[in-house]
């Protein structure tokens, strides 16, 4: 017998407003940056804003997780712990952390989630994290469905997986390229994204093989077609990347996955309350994307975005004819003035233009592009869609039932919601007989009590236990309804407040005996943690040592040889894009920086090292 799972849609919250929209569009949980120490330095929030989002989210039974997932220096630990206590006090449901030094600090009894920055890729590592007291582990993005099943069968910890958004080409937590190039560490929340830069590829004898291409840039992740398989594999939290994306992205992508998960709820439970109704049709191709891949879910496949690191948007058709100052497009899409259209020129570079006028399938560009019949076109700025998303696009309501009764002193209204949370509110009032018949009075009472307006609630049933026996003015009925809804709101906030989750560390040995630079240890508390678990730190993190000899600046399951059709083991699925011998040494060059590519074929991975 298959046990029912509670499925959670986890959405990014850049700030309070973005988080509120994520909730409105169907998120079951949010992750948000705290005032400091989060892996996106451009997405921090005050404690007060986090508290406001917690209150709004908890009304719907949605959880809020705070990201405190950078590595910390010794002189930062005290400030981090103080901040964590404040987050706990305002009702944050869990912390997402990377630095194991925090586990040796005096933390409040708050639920802990192991950040994907911990590189959670093996059964042994995830077993250890569970035994160390983590309630949830966020899997490495490279995790396949087969690996998910293996992890689920071997552990009891909650499993969270990314399903949508930008991909880091390196294993998360194992990229030091940005730190090496300009002192901006991804493990410290300030990655400069060197993977999105353009590179030249050289052979070992100095021959230029490929010029000025985005050789380390990946398409964006989209697991839309694999959700059921992920559920079957044991994933219960489905995470959308995008704390630095705009609010339109959040609305569109959250609504898209909400609808997909709702269609898969048979035999499973929803993780929060209420239902969202949308005023638009979600379409993830119409929002920021570099083209899509399902990455390694179903095994290795082509996933690179060599031509551009920018958003391409949605494919809209091909050029059917070219006029003096017009283009006619073959395709099903309609266009609007101001739309941004992009295409690849004969050198393979992404170019674009805006539409000044639309005449059916014929468009007038603001400047005539160098295109020919058959050129493929994408729309990366969809005016009509963006205009729609800028307005109110969703409403989320929690179902409630009301029961209206008379009391010796006046009247009482009982309310109970879809989660079984209830409240009552009474007022003193004169028992006045109906002025126009009991049936008419009953209809007025039910109609007035059903008006919940902009509250999070929708009334699905009103039971008038007086059967229209008494008349009450609309103002009194409104007072009664507002009072009951106010009490219910307070009770829901209490009901969904986080429970204490003291961490229990069962002392399991760490899977390896030595921790090198890849352990990202930069404080004494982290050293103590690993020593307690039988591992010695033999090298601290590069952010602290500044030593890069013998360091893999990137370790990645992505393989450039494979993408170029030159897999040494013959597994490439595309024709060779360039002639490369199996024993050829390969180098990347970017703005005077030279990097050696090392191919670990037995483990099917690639390392980028300084040359």
Structure explained in plain terms:
Among the domains are: 5-167 and 218-286, Alpha-Beta Barrel (TIM Barrel), CATH 3.20.20; 394-495, no CATH class. The longest helix has 22 residues, at 474-495. Helix 1 runs parallel beside helix 2 (47-59) and helix 1 runs parallel beside helix 8 (247-262). Helix content is 23%, strand content 27%. The strands form five sheets. It has an eight-stranded parallel barrel with strand order 1-2-3-4-5-6-7-11, surrounded by five helices. A six-stranded antiparallel sheet has the order 9-8-28-29-30-27, with no helix packed on it. The protein is built from 14 helices and 30 strands. The protein has 611 residues and is α/β, with parallel strands linked by helices.
CATH overall fold name of the domain at 5-167 and 218-286? TIM Barrel
Text of the CATH class of the domain at 5-167 and 218-286 = Alpha Beta
Compute the average pLDDT.
95
Q: Structural class of the secondary structure composition? A: alpha/beta
Beta strand %: 25-35%
Q: Number of helical segments? A: 14
Short structural description:
The protein is α/β, with parallel strands linked by helices and 611 residues long. It is built from 14 helices and 30 strands.
Entry keywords:
alpha/beta; TIM Barrel
What is the strand and helix layout of this fold?
Blueprint lengths: L4 E9 L2 H9 L4 E5 L13 H13 L3 E6 L8 H13 L4 E4 L13 E4 L8 H9 L4 E3 L6 H10 L3 E8 L11 H6 L16 E5 L4 E6 L6 E3 L4 H7 L3 E4 L6 H16 L5 E3 L4 E4 L13 E2 L20 E9 L4 E4 L9 E5 L5 E10 L2 E4 L10 E6 L1 H8 L3 E13 L3 E8 L4 E7 L9 H12 L7 E8 L9 H22 L18 E2 L8 H9 L3 E2 L4 H4 L8 E3 L3 H4 L22 E5 L2 E8 L4 E6 L1
Parallel strand pairs: 1-2, 1-11, 1-12, 2-3, 3-4, 4-5, 5-6, 6-7, 7-11, 10-14, 21-24, 25-26
Antiparallel strand pairs: 7-10, 8-9, 8-28, 13-21, 15-16, 15-20, 16-19, 17-18, 17-20, 18-19, 21-22, 22-23, 27-30, 28-29, 29-30
